[in-house]
Amino acid sequence: MQIPENSTEVSIRISEVLDDIGAGKDTVMERRRTYLWKERNETIGVQLIGMNANCFHFGSQSEGTTTPGLQSDIDILYSNNDVNIMRVWGDWEAGMGNLLMLQDNRTPPQQYLLQVSRGDSSGPASSLCNDAYVMKHSGEVLLSAERFKQEIEHANRDLGEAIKSGPSVSFLPNWDFVYAFHVLKPLPEIQNWIDRCRGRHWPPVQLLEGARVAPCFLVPAGHPDSDYTREEWRLSPNLIERMLMFSLNMTQIKCYVILKLIKKSLFYENVGDCITSYHCKTIMFYTIEQTHTLLWSEHNILFLLLLCLRKLRTFLRLGRLPHYVIEGVNLFDGKVSKVQQRRLLVYIDYMIRNNLQDVFYIGIDNIGSMLQPRSLLRNVQDGDPRRECVHNSISLLLRFELMNNLLERCNIYRIQKSNTTLIQNIKYRLHNALQYLTNVRLKSCALEFIKHVYALVHSMKLSDCLRLRNVSNNKLIMRLQYTLNMDVASSRLKLASILYCSGHLHAAVRVLEDVERRYHNRVKAVCSSRSIEGDRDFHVFADMQSGNKDGFSELPFAFCVRMFRQESYCTPFILLFEMNRNIAEEEVEARDYFETFFMENAEVDARPFLHYLQYLTYGGLGERDKQLNAFRVLESYIYDSRNHINLYHPETALNLLGHCYEMEQDYTKALHIYRVSLLRCDINNAAYRHALRVGRLKIYQLLSV
Known about the structure:
Blueprint: H1 7-20, H2 25-48, E1 53-58, H3 60-63, E2 74-80, E3 83-86, E4 97-102, E5 111-116, E6 133-135, E7 141-143, H4 145-155, E8 163-165, E9 168-170, E10 175-183, H5 188-197, H6 205-213, E11 216-219, E12 233-236, H7 238-246, H8 250-271, H9 277-289, H10 301-318, H11 338-353, H12 367-370, H13 374-380, H14 387-410, H15 422-435, H16 443-467, H17 474-480, H18 490-501, H19 505-518, E13 524-526, H20 538-545, E14 557-559, E15 561-563, H21 585-590, E16 602-604, H22 606-620, H23 624-639, H24 650-663, H25 667-680, H26 687-704
Helix pairs in contact: 2-14, 8-9, 8-10, 9-10, 10-11, 14-20, 15-16, 16-17, 16-18, 18-19, 18-22, 19-22, 22-23, 22-24, 23-24, 24-25, 25-26
């Protein structure tokens, strides 16, 4: 293989550019930490709603092998702990759903049928007592993978139309949700792979020992050419593949990222999207296995990429890409047609002959122009964000996703049983959450959940004190201080609201002044109930970094402020209307799945609520100039289009503004604001009630003249 003279220079340039676009070591490791934390948090969340499952994030996001331009999907797998997968009937367990793995000479490698066991004892079931069951010609009752996915789709129909792809049944774009069963028993496929790898420099011995005991998963996906394609389940060694990916050094990671960039841009132009990241990962595994460890260094990246493409070319010539772990599986089957294989083979031959010159024309992440010689880089790339800025922006995006995930899991209404009161439910969930404190893996996530819920408990107790006119609530207020560091504003604003409602206006002002100091113009709102198109775009977080040389002293995020009915006495009067925002039952029925989690409460963005509370508090203290200033700032903030990316509840913010006009006795303007609110959200909006009330006030005002 002929190596270009400037190979070392180009290799180092490729490595530096990958650092610049967010594929450097720090960013890779932060992505991994974030998604491992999210999967622990997700596990606690689903178990608290009664789903006995473990959650895993797999794929590019959790491996850290992505960039902003690759726009990789988020993959999550739910492994059902209520089902025992058997290799033989002797593995049967009482109190579990038991399924026996079946494989014969008609079942393709990696594929299994799942035979249903009797419920009361070991042995095959004989009746179709579930819609997901089918009967084989030979009499075995099977759990159909396709029907299993249909049941998931039906059970989650309130989430909208399902997006089905392979084993995934998703209700969110760019997300893959897979519901699977884990296999704890030893599998011959895995043992054969371990035996094949013995004595090689890679994978290391410790990894092979871990692979021996790592669970595999059965995911609902059949082989496209099988007679039982609708019934089959695919054996997936996700955890072993995670171990393999986590064992790679940074040069290997960067080669993989470049391969994916080539796949998404250059390969796509020639053969569409038939080549997947999984194909690239498999090519990497084979190349690493057959290449000496010492060659995997930064100055060899171009040579190593050529090795990877030569390996792919070999498999294309054979018409077969073997699965790295499971023998007998061709990863081209059902994915890459013979025509596409021939076309791609011609193109890869061309790429190798031209020493990967086409890489200089990749548009994703602007990588092609960034790979130009440094003498041209200043002209072509003038003004592009620096490496540190890109890393910090990705870091902010990851923190945003993490905090949003935490808020979703802490949404107490999502974990409420329908036949319990909210207080009973909170006590029950707290009791369950405390059990996780003995689990080393889940403890830190459980503590975050407990802290959020305890803050809600204290707020409810304070509301009760105010309802009963019990002034001895200072201890409860003091306890709230321990929850103030959850974000920039929301917990502090709730404290300020409590102080205002209990008559401690001077104390409320001090808290509000503290919030205003913290709430600089780069703070990003976080909402677990609604999303705004583009609110997770990379450029949003890059803009937060713009001009910020010193970094942030605290995470620049503010949760929405949510007031439950049980907190009514800690809530300004106008927000009580938000708890009864519908005027007809049809409006309740029109709410989508996610809206049902907050429509019975008051929920408001932190920044508008800050200025509204300032208006109320300064008014109560008779500081008219400060009151009017808060009024003007509130109105300016709502109408400034630059802030719309941070307004998840614009109709509620407008309702607060309308109420300010009411208190100024400008009923005409108040009515106009409420109408604007209704234009933003014409159903399930408390502005209807406000408009009716203000209409009566306006008539009374006219009659009084």
